[in-house]
Design brief:
The complex is a heterodimer of chains A (563) and B (227). Chain A is 63% helix and 2% strand. Chain A has helices at 2-25, 34-48, 58-82, 98-109, 119-122, 125-155, 169-195, 225-234, 255-280, 283-309, 333-346, 361-373, 382-401, 415-441, 453-467, 482-511, 528-561, and strands at residues 205-208, 217-220, 407-408, 411-412. Chain A has a two-stranded antiparallel sheet with strand order 1-2. The longest helix of chain A has 34 residues, at 528-561. Chain B has a 3-stranded antiparallel β-sheet. The chains are: A mainly alpha (563), B mainly alpha (227). Chain A: It is a multi-pass membrane protein.
Chain lengths: 563, 227
């Protein structure tokens, strides 16, 4: 209980000043810390040959994102396949096969960090840092940059025609990385090292077991682990150094390290509510959004916590009665494993400190639902962007309900906008359910490790996690096959770029339109009633899309078990 | 509209002509990869290794003679009666091959494995199945959980004391010394390797190697998959 209080307190108390700081860091106004950070930023701009003061239209901004990401995917793909020939490989790990390498590159370039490999055994120190840590900084920073660009364009009221662009991608990205992510990650990395997370470039220890009757040697892989785990947690990335992620004592050694890592899951997504409130000046709107998110979050966490406190159905009468400890670490117990599971699926982080495959059915179902919604705080930047997407749909529905022409912040929502908004929302059930159906239908493609209803849940979870850019899994799944790798690449790409770039485009289109003055019939977007409508739209859209699939998976599993 | 504003707008229009070129994107990528993928890990890893040398190298445990016998963060396999055993592992207690069982509660294999583990424990400790704490029959998430609950340690005291020919109070006192997480966070747990090393340090096992062996506990390797 103390741990849980500490985690919530850290997020609440540090999140507010962090939000104020982020708003400051991303502002184009001069500030006191400029001189300090320009030492790093100016050489970056100069070496890259970019003018950080220039302004991009939304089209150029989006193009800059896509071009950088094509480069990053190719670079990472190459590093993974050639790691056997490259330096920083003390354990002599060979290159990855092409499809696993492609999936890994795309998975990390989309802020997903879904892993079809075990890091400590299949990636060199160079791959883990040069390829992966780089992406773990740049992808959340991209989400944050796009969010700020949208906020500047959509939320700040300005007369039509005066908005010439949405900002400069390289400026926003560099500021986020240098002023926000790097300092935070460095502090967290040192704190984690103090708790026992390895920080070393040495090869694995090989140790004979103490019991002389056990003639086995255990290996203890090391590496610059702490530096990766820090940004893995802070950047809603989730891809860990070791296969089972932060359940591994070397990646999450103590209750204190668990408090730090759990708080790191949500601190930036939470702080962004405050940052955007300051940047846009729409405090009531952001408070309303925060209230909806907090409500969803508390519901999810209490369901998962109470589910995991119940015994595992397979173990009844084989021991003293107890909670579901299968797949969980004792130093966290079931409550802190459930809290982590709930937060990691809400925030699209996807790191785990317990095995979700072995959660009780109701707990597992809640994790799936968190990922369907995906805007309960959500990924760094993209969580709020996703919320804006739902907000646009709610504004459309709400305007029609009160008999007005649909509008958003005084700008008319017309056919072009609504077509793209609908596409971005409908792509989710289409891709997840379509690919799941295909996988189950093809003989031998699914690779499920658990029989019956839970097998279907494993397939559904994998594609949901890919589309939500989450990265966690029901990890018993035999997912390192060409089919799984390529099918997930599709879900990863669509799930990342469509819901992120459509709101940017809508913001750009709306900025060019004339603002209608607010009248008596105008829908007040920051009212509790409208927030209730938005929450309702989120729930209804997701239930319509996924309830049948949930009935066939976790609900059927729960019913056949008796709870 | 005054001249300054006109100039401002003209300047704005000029900047808007700026394209997102491939050259800028690729150069930016290389600069960032060097900063974030090489310099940042190098700086934090060096600093961490210098500030916390023990923790940074895997928290190694040494016996009384200074020999490295393991890591306090990685469980080991114990089969002899002289040692406390840890939780079932789907990874053979090898940190190079970490894994949970990933068995769903609805999977019959999970019940079969737990049944076998529970029977083996009941036989070895001479207790009935319903006295076994649940952590001893559930595989951890990592497969290298170094801890057991104080109750699970208590269950094994009689067997270990008898195998080593020492009295139970001595063993119980060593359990108290091997407790971790006794502070404000977490709940107290026994580090199995630390406990066994302290037993070996005080009562070397070489004097009791003649003790008869019981069958090895069933170590589950139900997971055939990877992350």
């Amino acid at each position: 209980m103390n741990d849980m209080i500490a985690i919530y307190a850290i997020v609440a108390l540090l999140g507010v000043p962090l939000g104020i700081y982020i708003a400051c860091a991303l502002s184009t106004q001069p500030s006191r810390v400029d001189t300090l950070f320009r030492v790093i930023e100016t050489p970056i701009y100069r070496l890259a040959g970019v003018n950080s003061q220039s302004i991009m239209t939304w089209q150029v901004y989006a193009l800059a994102i896509l071009k950088l990401h094509v480069g990053l995917i190719l670079l990472a793909w190459l590093v993974f396949m050639c790691q056997g020939l490259l330096p920083l490989n003390p354990d002599g790990i060979p290159g990855m096969k092409w499809d696993t390498a492609l999936h890994t590159a795309v998975s990390f370039a989309t802020n997903t960090n879904q892993q079809h490999y075990s890091g400590q055994a299949q990636l060199s120190h160079l791959s883990q840092t040069f390829a992966i840590v780089t992406l773990q900084f740049l992808t959340p920073a991209t989400g944050l940059a796009v969010l700020v660009a949208i906020a500047r364009t959509l939320l700040v009221a300005r007369p039509a025609g005066t908005v010439k662009g949405v900002g400069n991608y390289y400026h926003d990205l560099t500021r986020t990385v240098v002023r926000v992510m790097l300092p935070l990650a460095a502090v967290v990395a040192l704190l984690l090292t103090s708790q026992g997370v390895p920080s070393s470039y040495q090869a694995a220890h090989q140790i004979e077991m103490l019991d002389s009757q056990v003639e086995e040697v255990q290996s203890i892989p090391l590496g610059p682990v702490a530096s990766m785990v820090a940004i893995k947690q802070l950047g809603t990335n989730g891809g860990g150094w070791y296969g089972p992620n932060s359940s591994v004592p070397l990646e999450n050694p103590t209750p204190l390290s668990n408090v730090i890592e759990t708080a790191s899951l949500t601190i930036i997504p939470f702080a962004l509510l405050i940052a955007i409130a300051l940047i846009s000046g729409r405090r009531r709107l952001m408070m309303g959004i925060g209230a909806v998110m907090l409500t969803f979050s508390l519901i999810s966490t209490s369901v998962v916590v109470s589910s995991e406190r119940m015994p595992n159905a397979a173990l009844v009468e084989l021991s003293q009665p107890g909670a579901n400890l299968e797949g969980k670490e004792l130093r966290f117990g079931t409550d802190l494993s459930a809290l982590w599971g709930s937060w990691t699926t809400q925030t699209s982080n996807g790191s785990v400190n317990a095995m979700h495959d072995s959660f009780n059915p109701m707990g597992g179902m809640m994790l799936l639902m968190d990922m369907f919604v995906n805007v309960t705080f959500g990924g760094v930047g993209v969580g709020l962007i996703g919320f804006f997407l739902y907000l646009m749909l709610a504004a459309f529905v709400g305007s029609l309900m009160v008999g007005r022409a649909p509008e958003l912040f005084g700008k008319p929502l017309e056919t072009r906008e609504m077509r793209w908004i609908s596409l971005a929302i409908l792509a989710q059930p289409l891709v997840i359910l379509g690919l799941s159906a295909l996988t189950v239908a093809m003989p031998g493609a699914a690779g499920t490790s658990n029989p019956g209803f839970h097998g279907l849940s494993q397939v559904l979870y994998e594609f949901t996690s890919a589309f939500a850019n989450n990265g966690s899994g029901f990890e018993g799944l035999g997912d390192d096959t060409t089919w799984w790798n390529l099918a997930c690449v599709i879900a990863l790409m669509v799930g990342r770029f469509l819901p992120m770039l459509v709101p940017l485009a809508v913001a750009g289109w709306l900025a060019a339109k004339r603002t209608a003055p607010a009248g008596r019939g105008t829908l007040p977007m920051d009212s509790p009633a409208f927030m209730g409508l938005t929450a309702g739209v989120i729930v209804i859209v997701n239930l319509l899309g996924f309830l049948p699939a949930l009935v066939l998976g976790p609900i059927a599993e729960a019913v056949t078990q008796g709870f | 509209m005054n001249v300054d504003m006109k100039r401002q707008i003209a300047a704005n229009d000029d900047v808007l002509q700026a394209k997102a070129s491939w050259g800028n994107a690729l150069r930016f990528m290389v600069v960032m990869a060097v900063l974030l993928g090489l310099i940042y890990p190098l700086v934090t890893t060096t600093l961490g290794g210098w500030l916390f040398p023990e923790q940074a190298q895997g928290s190694l445990v040494r016996d009384v003679s200074g020999r490295v016998v393991g890591s306090s963060l990685v469980s080991q396999t114990f089969v002899s009666d002289e040692y406390f055993i840890g939780r079932p592992s789907a990874a053979g207690n090898d940190a190079g091959d970490v894994s949970g069982s990933n068995l769903a509660p609805s999977n019959i294999s999970l019940r079969e494995r737990a049944q076998a583990d529970a029977n083996a424990i009941a036989q070895r400790e001479n207790v009935s199945v319903d006295q076994i704490p649940v952590d001893l029959i559930t595989a951890s998430g990592s497969g290298i959980d170094p801890h057991i609950s104080p109750e699970a340690a208590e269950l094994q005291v009689a067997r270990v004391a008898q195998a080593r020919g020492i009295d139970e109070a001595t063993v119980t006192a060593l359990i108290d010394q091997a407790l971790e997480n006794t502070g404000w966070l977490g709940s107290p747990l026994v580090n199995v390797l630390r406990l066994n090393v302290s037993l070996d340090d005080r009562f070397p096992v070489s004097s009791t190697t003649a003790a008869p062996l019981t069958p090895a506990p069933v170590i589950s390797t139900a997971s055939d998959t990877m992350e």
